[in-house]
């Protein structure tokens, strides 16, 4: 879950309009999908869910709400393409997180199997 879901998700300040008008919800956008993409890729690479090293759900909620991204394994940290891609996906500020178009242009998203010899 992207950090902004917990910090912005349910607050009344994120809803605009008055009682006589229709309400407009603002605050959570497509950047959440980029965070989720990072989570899916991380789980596919490691076989473990993000934050698997935390014992209790409340710890996960705390880490996410505090803006602490999931830890990357040493193998992922050693692979520059993978490390950069995931770090971009896990950018804490949703306004600084790459767009879907930018993610699709990332070298990691354009790796051809024959070009990639490392096991990460």
TrEMBL record:
SUPFAM superfamilies listed in its UniProt record: Protein kinase-like (PK-like)
Keywords: ATP-binding, Kinase, Nucleotide-binding, Serine/threonine-protein kinase, Transferase
Any Pfam family hit: Pkinase
GO molecular function: ATP binding; protein serine/threonine kinase activity
Protein name, as recorded: Protein kinase domain-containing protein
Domain Protein kinase: 1-109
InterPro entries named among the record's database cross-references: Kinase-like_dom_sf, Prot_kinase_dom
Organism name: Acrobeloides nanus
Top-level taxon: Eukaryota
């Amino acid at each position: 879950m992207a950090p902004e879901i917990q910090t912005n998700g349910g607050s009344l300040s994120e809803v605009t309009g008055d009682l006589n008008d229709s309400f407009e919800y603002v605050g959570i956008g497509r950047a959440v999908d980029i965070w989720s993409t990072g989570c899916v890729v991380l789980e596919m690479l490691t076989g473990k869910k993000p934050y698997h090293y935390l014992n209790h759900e409340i710890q996960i909620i705390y880490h996410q709400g505090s803006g602490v991204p999931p830890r990357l394994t040493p193998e992922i940290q050693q692979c520059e393409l993978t490390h950069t891609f995931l770090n971009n996906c896990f950018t804490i500020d949703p306004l600084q997180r790459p767009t879907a178009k930018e993610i699709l242009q990332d070298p990691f998203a354009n790796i051809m199997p024959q070009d990639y010899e490392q096991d990460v």
